[in-house]
Amino acid sequence: MEYYNLCEQDSLLSQYMSELRDKNIQTDRMRFRTNVRRIGQIMAYEVSKKLAFDNTDVETPLAVAHTRTIGSNVVLGTVLRAGLPLHEGFLSYFDCAENAFVSAYRKYRNDSDDFDIQIEYMATPRLEGKTLILVDPMLATGASMVMAYKALLAKGEPARVHIVSIIASQQAVDFVKTHFDEEKTTLWVADVDPVLNDHSYIVPGLGDCGDLLYGIKE
Predict the structure, then answer these.
(1) Contact at 8 Å (CB) between 79 and 102?
(2) Rounded to an integer, what distance in angstroms lies between the CA atom of residue 72 and that of residue 171?
(3) pTM flag (> 0.90)
(4) For residue 109, is pLDDT > 80?
(5) Of the candidates 74, 25, 37, 30, the residue with the CA atom closest to the CA atom of residue 52
(6) What does the alpha-carbon distance between residue 214 and residue 27 come to, in Å, rounded to a whole number?
(7) Statement: residue 107 has pLDDT above 90
(8) Can you say whether the dihedral through the CA atoms of 212, 143, 90, 188 is positive or negative?
């Protein structure tokens, strides 16, 4: 499986990642959402380098220009709810993409730290033969990403899959590598953190991404 950790090389992405993690900056919810969208745009540009392109002739006011345009049929998939601003960042670049949405959340058992991943909603076009870009800002255990992908397979088998997260744990990176087709899947992360805590949150991470984006849920 191809795997890219974009923070291994310094870029503007590192600045936005620093702000995203900073607990003082996080109090500005609008800025937090904006930074997630910005990171989505940067990562979309990087993913675009791995897509198929076609030669296209475009008529300008003066002559014909020989150009290159995306030849892949892209479906942009998102795990709700935390994935929405990241999805928006990608969609602002892949503005002709089809879109898919999956709700995947942790359902805790008996007031403990043990949980199951629940899928309760899905809306997607057909995926057969297309390029699926599946985004979720936090890849903690990797289980919700795998469950979301398996749910989407009910609508066909994509030709290529790009898994995209802002922060992943090393455990999740290893998990994804063993649960996706290594020949057709590429994993993209902005950064990798070493461990999960007892609640399966990434450490140092940034906290609960969904709550920071939209407010605390009951």
Answers:
(1) yes
(2) 31
(3) yes
(4) no
(5) 74
(6) 12
(7) no
(8) positive
Stretch (H or E) spanning 188: strand 185-193
- Tokens 């809306």 belong to 123
Angle, to 10 degrees, between the axis of helix 143-152 and the axis of helix 170-179?
A: 30
What percent of the chain has pLDDT above 70? 94
Helix ranges (H only) for the chain are: 12-21, 29-48, 84-91, 143-152, 170-179, 209-214
- At 187 the three-state DSSP class reads strand
CA separation (Å) from 166 to 18, 53, 80, 117, 172? 12, 26, 15, 20, 12
Residues 6+ apart with CB under 8 A from 82: 136, 137, 138, 209, 210, 213
The mean pLDDT of 82-89, rounded to a whole number, is: 95
User: How buried is residue 105: exposed, middle or buried, by Cβ count under 10 Å (0-12/13-18/19+)?
Assistant: middle
Structure tokens at 206: 């940034």
**In this structure, what token pair is assigned to residue 81?**
């709810």
Q: For the purposes of burial, counting CB atoms within 10 Å of the CB of 35, is it exposed (0-12), middle (13-18) or buried (19 or more)?
A: buried
Angle between helices 29-48 and 84-91 (to 10 degrees): 50
